[in-house]
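User: I'm putting together a teaching handout on how multi-component assemblies are represented. Below are the sequence lines for each component of a complex, exactly as they appear in our records. Could you produce the 3D structure of the whole assembly as structure tokens, so the students can see both representations side by side? Please keep the chain order the same as the input.
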Amino acid sequence: MDKKLKIRSKNLNFYYSQFKALHDISLDFYENQATALIGPSGCGKSTFLRCLNRMNDLITGIRVEGSILIDGKNIYDPSIDVVSLRGRVGMVFQKPNPFPKTIFENVAYGLKIKGIKDKNLIAEYVEKSLRAGALWDEVKDRLNNTALGLSGGQQQRLCIARALAVNPDVLLMDEPCSALDPIATQKIEELIHDLKKSYTIIIVTHNMQQAARTSDITAFFYMGKLIEAGKTDTIFTNPALKTTEDYITGRFG
Amino acid sequence: MWFTQKKKEKFMHFAFFLVAAASVAALFMITLFLFLEGIPIFEKVGFTEFLFGNYWYPTSEPADFGIFPLIIGSLAITIISALISIPLGVMSAIYLAEIASARLREIVKPIIELMASLPSVVIGFFGMVVVAPILQDTFDIATGLNIFNASLMLAFMSVPTICSLSEDAVYNVPVNLKEASLALGATQLETIFKVTLPASISGISTAVILGMSRAIGETMVVLMVAGGAAMVPESIFDPARPLPACIAAEMGEAPYHGDHYYALFAIGIVLFVFTFIFNFVADYISHKYKQTGDATL
Amino acid sequence: MRNSTSAANNLHDHEITTIHERQLQLRPEFKKVFHVKIQKRKKLFQHLFYFLFRLAAFINFAALAIIIYFILSNGLNAITWEFLTKPPVDSMTRGGILPCIIGTVCLSICSVSVAFPVGVFSAIYLNEYAKQGFVLRVIRLCINNLAGVPSVVYGLFGLAFFVIYLEMGVSIIAGALTLGIMTFPVVIGSTEEALKAVPDTYREASTGLGATKLQTILRVVLPTALPGILTGGILGISRAAGETAPVMFTAAVFFSPKLPSGIFSEIMILPYHIYVLATAGTEIEATRELQYGTALVLITLVLSMNLIAIIYRAKLRKKTKI
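Assistant: Of course. Below is the structure of the complete assembly, with chains in the same order as your input.
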């Protein structure tokens, strides 16, 4: 299967002040594929994910070496505008974090930020995004209710819809199901399965089954290093390294 | 042994409750004595005449007890000082909570708390001896002791309240909301205006109201700086005699249980009611619109 | 459940095409709106507003610095050994401020010995005993309102109740009680913060070992919270030391030839002394230096106490965070 290269991380090192959190990470991501980042807590997988849309910039005292190329452009190049980068690389967080506004306003937020003023156009995009987030049928009659009234799973799908509304190419998901119950998790996983047909998806997860179910490629992180990456089937059935096998079979972590 | 221990527990629980209830008693006593000493004036002067009368000549014969000019003086100074202190306080709060580095914040926040602790008499003194002559020279006016000067000094006094309470509100907006906004491609400024501020608006409004409540009740600054003329002011460079200043200046000379004495207590009632309303509204807002934001599952 | 799953499956069938379309067709539109120019304008706005925010914070800082600078530079000359240790002479146009210093210290200590126990007890009740409900709501509302009552109204109350009704006269005790009522909300605030910072696990551990509630509070909670509670006491003292309006009818006098001899004496205090010299003295201009000097002594007293409390509290907060 020939896939187009979307993101390439080249020898990425990352420091929180003195602490080196990522060692020399080189990893490729392809279009219309879901890549799962797995590994024990504190292994650097979330840090790596947050490097991809430069969310780590918000923390003081960080330093980045190496490069991340998206569509061939280094996003750590000084000429890159972080704000428009984040418009292209959407993110869904661990805990559902809808704004304390209405459901409609939540989805429309990113559109208004982009400068779209046409009310009909906004309404159209909101509907499309909510459909794409598999939430439309559940909320179409109460778009003007507060988003905080939704269940956890609905809130998370709202956050996904909100991220889709600004029309990104890449969707980063930081343990999107860790705060959800199994049924809500299942819905999100189905959604991921559909979304990867049109987006590049990178998902951090603690849950091995989830990685196996949703991803095409799996990358295993341990102690800030990328230990092994490859086709999900291979990683889970026949890993090349002993550490990977130990982790996957639950011997540590 | 077990029995006495249990009794002791019950007794102490009750004792703690009694002391805590002292605040209720204190507020009750304050209200009671204010009204006890203030109400008699209304046997001499009608209620509306007292509130809306244009002349305050408490010592002339016959005396005039109209506090309308004093109320206007108080309101004018409070409003003008709010126009200065609200933007200044809220903007500093945003700076501290959102822009300043953690280290700078640790230094600047205590400095602002320190501002709050400056004795009002010192600020009044500063307004009198430093600011007044400067105003008098720059604007070529009769006296530097006027509404504008008093507003300036009062603003200085209410900024710390407004800033420090709003800062708490802004700072406590959950990080994940800000992250959500930034991840959608919003700039930091857009995030502040569209997410952070709306999420903390109840805390900020409470801060503003409490700041204004402090300003309207502040005594020494307006006593020393406002100029003391009991007339309805026509410009911001006119002197005024706000309610607290009037009480403080005249209580020393008012004969005990005379009309003047009663009238000053009645002014106290008006002031008390003003601040009571302010506090009540602040309390209502902070309860009704409790800062939400962190999504609950 | 089944419905929504099939909805998701439907989406798989026909919605996906719309998503594809959106990506392909709408992209230029986005590009058109989301132009570089907008980006630049946004950046400019951000710089502008950040500048304003910084400026606001700076203005506060500058105002404080200017006030302290003026008082310091003008008052330093007045500070001599004689100024600090002698009473005023010649109708307060010369001499020192010893009675005022002593008066201020007496008054603030007395008022805190009223406010501190009441404040700490109330805070213990509110934080450890009280259950959510009407009573708690009423007590809190009263405390909030006490904190908001204008200082001059406290003065009126002190005059009517302590000075006249209880026949204490203008005296330290009347002033201290008035100030005590005024400052105990401050003590409650700090104490409650300190009590809240004590982890619940301490309480659970203690009750788990068979201690009663009272024993837990006295032996575990209070010792842990003590530093924070003391900070509240210091803040209370400094607040009481700087107040003028509540004591000008209840404790303070223009001039008193003697030092206070007991709690029923009337006293001179620093803030009122500044006010008197600056507005009603016999030689307002000639005593400027004395005024600045008195102000300097007062702010040194108040600010140093606050500084100690603030630094101490900052340290405590750091400790409890870890």
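A couple of points students might notice: Residues 1-34 of chain C have pLDDT under 50 and may be disordered. Chain C touches chain A at residues 1, 3-5, 7-9, 11-12, 15-16, 18-20, 22-23, 26-27, 30, 33-34, 38-39, 42 (CB under 8 Å).
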